[in-house]
Amino acid sequence: MKSEENIPGQRFQITRVFVAPRAEVFNWWAHAEKLQQWSGCKEAIGCEVVMDFRVGGSFTQKMQIAVAGGTCEFSFTGTYVEIVVPEKISYHADLGQGVIRTIVEFFDQAHRTRVVLTQDGFADVGSCKIVSQGILESLDKLDSMLAGQVMVNRL
């Protein structure tokens, strides 16, 4: 399923429905070994995540991104503000141009999960659109991971 995106200025909201139970989708956000498998734009060739998944805990994410003539590294850090298993994750992240506030909500819809991700606090609309595009591409990867897991579980 494709994501719905809304960018009103220096914030955005993305909604995506995954064909997987809410607890399963939440777990792909709550464990570093799972998160690093899908997080990052389509040009990301590697992602390393270190996280202390608890309120007040911090995280660091480093991505190697393929660019013309080689690779570049993009990293950011953050702190978890609120965690309600399996309903909500809220954190503040420093992307290098100020702190961005993020809320990820997980809604149960029978055997599906609707995820609503909201980020605000961007310095400008351009930065907002770049990050939004990277998240859309990440969610495409997560959708593929979840679909593959469903297939394995059915065998």
What is the strand and helix layout of this fold?
Elements: E1 4-6, E2 11-18, H1 22-30, H2 32-38, E3 44-51, E4 58-67, E5 70-84, E6 88-94, E7 99-109, E8 112-120, H3 125-154
Antiparallel strand pairs: 1-2, 2-8, 3-4, 4-5, 5-6, 6-7, 7-8
Structure description:
- There is one protein chain.
- The protein is of the alpha+beta class.
- It has a single domain, classed as Alpha-D-Glucose-1,6-Bisphosphate, Chain A, domain 4, CATH 3.30.530.
- Helices cover 30% and strands 46% of the residues.
- The chain contains three helices and eight strands.
- The chain has helices spanning 22-30, 32-38, 125-154; strands spanning 4-6, 11-18, 44-51, 58-67, 70-84, 88-94, 99-109, 112-120.
- The chain has an eight-stranded antiparallel β-sheet with strand order 1-2-8-7-6-5-4-3.
- A hairpin with a 4-residue loop joins strand 1 and strand 2 (11-18).
- Mean pLDDT is 91; it is low at 150-155.
Termini gap: 23 Å
Q: Strand content of the residues, in percent?
A: over 45%
- Per DSSP, the total helix count is 3
The amount of helix comes to 25-40%
- In sequence order, what are the helices and strands, one letter per element? EEHHEEEEEEH
- Tell me the number of strands: 8
CATH evolutionary superfamily: START domain
CATH fold-type name:
Alpha-D-Glucose-1,6-Bisphosphate, Chain A, domain 4
* Secondary-structure-derived class: alpha+beta
Architecture per CATH nomenclature, i.e. the level-2 architecture: 2-Layer Sandwich
Radius of gyration: 15 Å
Task: Give the total of domains.
Answer: 1
Overall geometric form: globular
The level 1 CATH classification is Alpha Beta
Uncertain segments: 150-155
Q: Mean pLDDT, as a whole number? A: 91
Order the strands across the largest sheet as they lie in space: 1-2-8-7-6-5-4-3
